[in-house]
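Q: I'm writing up a methods section and want to include an example of the input and output format. Could you take the sequence below and give the corresponding predicted structure tokens, formatted cleanly so I can copy it straight into the document?
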Amino acid sequence: MSPEELQAARDTVIPDVIAGGLSVLFCGINPSLMSGATGHHFARPGNRFWPVLHLSGFTPRQLKPSEQGELLSYGLGITNVVARATARADELDAEEFREGGRLLAAKVERLRPNWLAVVGVTAYRTAFGDRRAQIGPQEHTIGTTRVWALPNPSGLNAHWTAQTMAEEYGRLRVAARSALD
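A: Here is the clean output for your methods example:
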């Protein structure tokens, strides 16, 4: 994809992959320019979301971004805190995150997933005003939906390997499965 095509995707909004009653609704920070250009969540080549989702046991095989619609058959979905595509998350300001958090809460109340999994603890902290939040399950709920902060799967997040991320995502998978039993 050319740099011009990527820049043309700036501020694009891509559709959520959502349905009512999901087991887990994954929530990214905001779409990358690659996601904006392709219309697929977590489409940037260095992003580890799709490999980690498989390694953690959420999907039986590694899906490609273009196969994102298959998530619904596993009781999973994807949305974002902020809907517009940018080159970097630091192009978003705190008010945009807070407004995104309000819109996200309304979406979650309407769709009622069992879990909302925010991929990026810093985004979670800003969107929901919880500066002390850590990776893992949160005390905060949205209606009946429990919330889990996960590590950001961006290739820029060097603190987490794909394997250690998969372990944390796997903890959520086990909790989500337990809620169904």
